[in-house]
Design a protein that fits this description.
alpha/beta
Length: about 500
């Protein structure tokens, strides 16, 4: 029985498909070998795979006598080979996450985290494919082309919005947002124009640069160009807006940033629509929310697990009670060394400001609570402090309520900055982390609270509460971080980070 042959047109389509498949594999290999920083073994595997595919194609590229069954079987073999090589050599946050779980470095995959990882892997793959278009590789973007774009932008404003959308990742406290973003960031080539920074620190840098360019017609445009020159991929951790000055410039700033091709990856506790909720002049902030949602995929991590609270708690230096000044100073002296004398010091922070440190030695600073949180200080002062010191001894943290709301805001910011810098906290407090902020509530929480059935009246009960949306929303994060900072695991990581 004679073999069955495909028609001439069918054979043409087969040859066309095979030729294009070969070109695809060849270009994919060339792109990967040029753009990705891979090891010698991985590179060798890719070469061998490509050679194998080319051999298969050459054997199939004849014009007559090719049976339908042979074509289908060969095509399936090619697809399997390509798929297998892609799996073996695939990189990205999802691949690394699975490796860490198999090695026992992470707990078994959380279904909510896996959803976020798929989005991060999607972004990773798109960036790898679009590295030239997005101008991500700092060594492939010539100074001449950069100067040319700057020159023409002066004469004729141009937009170079990235074809790749970023990612806005939000969810509850302790769900692993920062860990996932860092996992994504670390899997990208070190030659790329990328930056990972805390939102507080980012905005401080913006304000500092605005001060430097004061007097220009649009200093924000210049600042955006400077940021884009250093980093096309911008990863911002803990995106939160509480300051009216930040709120008023974010829309124009990110308008310029997106026009300069910036790709944003952000983590936050808040849905974009809830950012700066109830803030002053929020109507001027709303266009920024629309822009944020347009240029980013918004994804929620819905996990109810707070991984920070799964650490070995009560291994740190959090002491509860009053009149513990002597104990705190004793512990502080033990940390710096018995023969070392701590003295007052001065720390320089951004824009020429200086912070007075009551006592400091060997990377450890000692402050009464009032000196650090009852004075007009902010994130800039705290970041400056922890660039010089890795440990803070804080005496007398009070229970927060309506009477000391401003101090509560500063304490929340202080804890955020300490956590970002992996600093160590040695403190005395009037109550546990949960009890310190118990009287801070959001508006919705206050509405749902029922009056207590005690001898105290409802009026007195409510008067003790501090109803503040932003502060109420931040308190869970602060409690979670204080808990983790008091754990054995955190202190071990602190020692590694600061090489103690």
């Amino acid at each position: 029985m004679r073999p069955v042959f495909r028609s001439s047109s069918s054979l043409s389509r087969i040859r066309w498909a095979l030729r294009n498949q070969e070109r695809y594999n060849s270009s994919t290999f060339s792109s990967k070998s040029r753009k990705l920083l891979i090891g010698a073994n991985q590179n060798e595997a890719l070469v061998n795979t490509n050679t194998c595919n080319s051999t298969l194609h050459s054997r199939l590229s004849f014009s007559r006598g090719l049976s339908a069954e042979a074509v289908e079987a060969a095509d399936a073999a090619i697809k399997l080979t390509v798929s297998s090589s892609a799996d073996v050599n695939r990189t990205g946050p999802l691949v690394e996450y699975e490796r860490r779980i198999s090695d026992g470095e992470l707990m078994t995959g959380d279904i909510c985290q896996l959803g976020a990882l798929k989005e991060l892997q999607r972004l990773h793959d798109q960036l790898v494919e679009s590295v030239d278009t997005c101008r991500l590789d700092r060594y492939n973007t010539s100074d001449k082309s950069s100067r040319s774009r700057w020159f023409w932008s002066r004469i004729m404003p141009q937009s170079s919005v990235s074809p790749v959308k970023g990612l806005y990742l939000y969810g509850g406290v302790g769900t692993g947002k920062t860990m996932l973003m860092d996992l994504f960031f670390d899997q990208l080539p070190c030659t790329w124009k990328k930056q990972r920074i805390h939102f507080h620190d980012f905005m401080l840098t913006v304000h500092s640069r605005l001060q430097k360019h004061k007097g220009l017609s649009d200093p924000l445009e210049v600042v955006a160009q400077e940021i884009a020159h250093d980093a096309i991929l911008l990863c911002l951790d803990e995106f939160m807006v509480t300051d009216v000055a930040d709120a008023l410039i974010l829309n124009r700033l990110f308008g310029h940033l997106f026009s300069n091709g910036i790709i944003l990856v952000a983590t936050s506790n808040r849905n974009p629509d809830k950012l700066y909720e109830g803030g002053l002049q929020r109507d001027l902030f709303l266009p920024f929310i629309a822009s944020l949602k347009e240029r980013n995929v918004v994804h929620e991590i819905g996990s109810a697990v707070d991984y920070r609270k799964l650490t070995s708690a009560e291994q740190g230096f959090y002491f509860i009670g009053t009149d513990l000044s002597t104990l705190l100073k004793q512990k502080f002296q033990e940390l710096i060394g018995g023969n070392v004398v701590a003295r007052p010091q001065v720390v320089e922070v951004v824009m020429g400001r200086k912070l007075q440190v009551p006592l400091g030695a060997k990377g450890c600073a000692y402050f009464p609570f009032e000196e650090l949180c009852d004075r007009p200080l902010g994130a800039a002062d705290y970041f400056g402090l922890f660039k010089k010191f890795h440990t803070l001894a804080l005496e007398g943290v009070p229970v927060f309520g309506l009477h000391n709301r401003t101090a509560a805001y500063r304490f929340v910011t202080l804890v955020d900055v300490m956590y970002e810098n992996r600093a160590r906290l040695l403190c005395t407090a009037e109550a546990t982390p949960q009890e310190l902020l118990e009287k801070i509530v959001t508006i919705s929480d206050a509405k749902s609270m029922s009056p207590r059935t005690s001898s105290r009246s409802r009026k007195n009960d409510v008067s003790e509460l501090c109803v503040d949306n932003e502060l109420g929303f931040a308190k869970d994060r602060t409690i979670s971080r204080l808990t983790e900072m008091n754990s054995k695991e955190y202190l071990e990581q602190h020692a590694i980070t600061h090489k103690l």
